[in-house]
């Protein structure tokens, strides 16, 4: 693998230490629990969707730095986005961490490209993807998401 | 502290190709024998030789080849029998591993003997392999699972044992050595207590056999299960020791070839022990490889291995404890050479990924023991396990890498 510092950059470490949008929305319009059975990472996502847009989103749970930073940055990135835009970003993010994103084509990930280093750590891809998988489940009305 | 070992480590390390061959261009520090042991060259060669020159199916036909394959296969059973001092090879059942061995007991003995309202007693430090088969049985039968608690050090709390064991308790499932914490449990005393109450004992020995001389007659247990691959042998082979009178009374579990005396459309009869529990073609090469691994360990000396492990555990505990923010999870007085730990504010998987980059192989996660993690109030730990080919340089490399983890995480 490449140097772990490529992945554990300052922004990721900072979001791990001080996650944004941490907590629970009550009431909420959408929610899902994400679970990574390999490592036991857990994530509870609550959202309020208004007129087809994610008006607010929060997460709770415990996980590694990659998982927590991914959830923190994801919640910030999708807030205010339409459901279609959020799904589009989820697909782009999956492609990014699997090393399958076409760098030449336009995408909507912005600073989420920080997670590019995960592609060099195949066993950690699921950690980065868990928040996004949970988001997709919540938007589809499924209560449970798993990276398996 | 001065490190002493009765083993010739320099020579021993030459027996393990992975330890003397660069892995992706660098030497590896293999501190993961509790996940799976490395096989010494003699065991690898034994598997190869059998596969290349001696192989056909066992217990079949009249060919010399088949007879000799059967002899080698049964010799491996004799080696296992002697290794754990079982009274008879009839009491040594080959399985795929510890998990299958425990499932065999739960499905065969358990389904015949556990009824609605009965109780299954397990310890708080069981591996999922000694929990889930019993949960499946309890659900099927309407039985209840009770748990012997443990304290913050990872030692079983036995004060209430007399009330935990009731007239409805049918079985005690207990790990000999905790895979997640390293605790060595007082199996002999607990088995004796269970026996006076008529409770059948099932001991998970997967983590014990690599570290301690095990004598099933001295322990007095009814069943003892372990895996070949944690004992420097191949994967896909494991052992269930069971007391003959119990095994004989148990119905078969898997049906098929090898385990039958005669089959007609009307009625099938079964052969005796151990074949009754060995339907189908067994992992012959793996069994013979395990026999070779046991020979290797006995030549090194089980007592010398235990002494080496104890010294290295003491050294590792001292060095790791000195790292600020590092907390060892599992501080029982009696421990095998397994050190689980957490670093303040840093998840075990992040620790594991950075150690991996430094060429240090450890386990990071819940160790298939989620109830243990819950009890210790940690989501996961990093676990370094030490065996007879590890030395202080492995510990020193681990410590240096952990300091790097702390530096990255700030």
Describe this structure in words.
The complex is a heterodimer of chains A (148) and B (410). Chain A is α+β, with helices and mostly antiparallel strands and 148 residues long. Chain A is 36% helix and 20% strand. Chain A is built from 4 helices and 4 strands; from the N terminus they run H-E-E-E-H-H-H-E. A 4-stranded mixed β-sheet of chain A has the order 3-2-1-4. In chain A, strand 1 and strand 2 form a beta hairpin. In chain A, helix 3 runs antiparallel to helix 4. Chain A is globular. Chain A starts with 9 loop residues before the first helix and ends with a strand. The model of chain B has no long low-confidence stretch (mean pLDDT 96). Chain B is built from 15 helices and 15 strands. Chain B is α/β, with parallel strands linked by helices. Chain B is globular and about 75 Å long. In chain B, strands 2-8-7-6-5-3-4 form a 7-stranded mixed β-sheet, with helices on both faces. A 4-stranded antiparallel β-sheet of chain B has the order 11-12-15-14, with helices on one face. The longest helix of chain B is centred in the first third of the chain and has 20 residues. The interface between A and B is medium-sized, with 22 and 20 residues.
Number of strands of chain A: 4
Question: How many strands, what sense, and barrel or not for the largest sheet of chain B?
Answer: 7 strands, mixed
Low-confidence stretches of chain B: none
The overall average pLDDT of chain B, rounded, is 96
Number of strands of chain B: 15
> Quick one: biggest sheet of chain A?
4 strands, mixed
Q: What's the arrangement of secondary structure elements?
A:
The complex is a heterodimer of chains A (148) and B (410).
Chain A: H1 10-17, E1 30-36, E2 41-50, E3 53-62, H2 65-78, H3 83-97, H4 125-140, E4 144-146
Parallel strand pairs in A: 1-4
Antiparallel strand pairs in A: 1-2, 2-3
Helix pairs in contact in A: 1-2, 2-4, 3-4
Chain B: H1 9-13, H2 17-20, E1 29-30, H3 41-54, H4 64-83, E2 92-95, H5 98-113, E3 119-123, H6 132-141, E4 144-148, H7 161-164, E5 169-175, H8 187-196, E6 200-204, H9 216-219, E7 223-227, E8 238-242, H10 244-249, E9 260-263, E10 268-270, H11 284-300, H12 302-321, E11 326-329, E12 338-343, H13 348-357, E13 360-361, E14 363-365, H14 370-376, E15 381-385, H15 392-409
Helix pairs in contact in B: 3-11, 4-11, 5-6, 12-15, 13-15
């Amino acid at each position: 693998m490449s140097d772990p510092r490529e992945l554990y950059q300052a922004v990721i470490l900072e979001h791990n230490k001080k996650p944004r949008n941490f907590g629970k929305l009550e009431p909420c319009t959408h929610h899902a629990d994400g679970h990574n059975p390999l490592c036991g990472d857990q994530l509870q996502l609550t959202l309020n969707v208004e007129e087809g847009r994610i008006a607010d989103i929060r997460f709770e749970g415990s996980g590694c730095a990659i998982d927590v930073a991914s959830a923190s940055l994801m919640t910030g990135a999708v807030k205010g986005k339409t459901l279609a835009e959020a799904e589009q970003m989820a697909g782009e993010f999956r492609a990014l961490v699997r090393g399958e994103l076409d760098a030449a084509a336009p995408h909507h990930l912005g600073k989420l490209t920080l997670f590019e280093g995960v592609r060099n750590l195949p066993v950690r891809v699921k950690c980065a993807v868990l928040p996004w998988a949970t988001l997709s489940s919540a938007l589809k009305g499924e209560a449970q998401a798993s990276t398996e | 502290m001065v490190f002493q070992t009765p083993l010739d480590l320099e020579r021993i390390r030459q027996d393990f190709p992975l330890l003397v061959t660069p892995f992706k261009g660098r030497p590896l520090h293999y501190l993961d024998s509790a996940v799976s042991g490395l096989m010494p060259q003699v065991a690898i060669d034994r598997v190869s030789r059998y596969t290349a020159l001696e192989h056909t199916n066992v217990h079949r036909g009249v060919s010399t080849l088949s007879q000799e394959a059967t002899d080698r296969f049964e010799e491996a059973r004799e080696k296992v029998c002697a290794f754990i001092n079982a009274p008879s090879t009839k009491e040594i059942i080959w399985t795929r591993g510890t998990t299958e061995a425990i499932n065999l007991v739960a499905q065969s003995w358990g389904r015949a003997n556990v009824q609605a309202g009965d109780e299954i007693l397990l310890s708080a430090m069981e591996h999922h392999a000694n929990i889930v088969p019993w949960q499946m049985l309890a659900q099927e039968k309407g039985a209840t699972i009770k748990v012997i608690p443990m304290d913050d050090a990872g030692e079983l709390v036995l004060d209430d044992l007399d009330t935990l064991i009731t007239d409805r308790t049918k079985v005690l499932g207990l790990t000999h050595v905790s895979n997640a914490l390293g605790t060595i449990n007082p199996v002999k005393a607990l088995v004796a207590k269970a026996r006076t109450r008529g409770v059948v004992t099932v001991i998970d020995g997967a983590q014990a056999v690599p570290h301690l001389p095990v004598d099933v007659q001295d322990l007095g247990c009814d069943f003892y299960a372990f895996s070949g691959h944690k004992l420097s042998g191949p994967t896909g082979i494991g052992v269930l020791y069971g007391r003959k009178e119990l095994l004989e009374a148990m119905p078969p579990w898997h049906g098929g070839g090898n385990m039958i005396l005669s089959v007609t459309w009307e009625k099938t009869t079964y052969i005796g022990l151990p074949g009754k529990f060995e339907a189908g073609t067994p992992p012959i090469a793996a069994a013979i490889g395990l026999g070779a691994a046991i020979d290797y360990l006995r030549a090194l000396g089980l007592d010398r291995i235990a002494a080496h492990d104890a010294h290295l555990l003491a050294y590792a505990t001292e060095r790791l404890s000195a790292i600020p923010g590092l907390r060892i999870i599992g501080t029982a007085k009696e421990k095998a050479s397994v050190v689980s730990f957490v670093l303040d504010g840093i998840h075990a998987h992040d620790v594991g990924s950075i150690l991996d980059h430094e060429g240090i192989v450890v386990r990071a996660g819940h160790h298939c023991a989620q109830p243990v993690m819950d009890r210790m109030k940690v989501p996961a730990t990093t676990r370094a396990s030490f065996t007879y080919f590890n030395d202080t340089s492995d510990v020193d490399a681990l410590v240096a890498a952990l300091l790097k983890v702390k530096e990255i995480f700030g």
